[in-house]
Amino acid sequence: xxxxxxxxxxxxxxxxxxxxxxxxxxxxxxxxxxxxxxxxxxxxxxxxxxxxxxxxxxxxxxxxxxxxxxxxxxxxxxxxxxxxxxxxxxxxxxxxxxxxxxxxxxxxxxxxxxxxxxx
Length: 119
Hints:
Elements: H1 8-28, H2 37-55, H3 68-89, H4 93-112
Helix pairs in contact: 1-2, 2-3, 3-4
């Protein structure tokens, strides 16, 4: 059974939506109670996701110099960063849960993403 149903085109939509969420939600949720890094790591990651998406070779990429498979590896790096960030930066409470929930979402998106668009 193949669980990879999310095409690169729809992955791109998810990327831009996630980037906006990473930039806005820290403020809407009042993150930063355990460390101000909890806010700014999310905002910086959101900005990087926008930049990487604009450079990725998929439907919503503007310059298209990053192969989609490499983009997925970068997504994995973000998921790993979000998994360890609460431990590395001393996040607790909502700050930690925010990062662990986002890591779970990113792992899931990687898992269900097709590696290339269907012809």
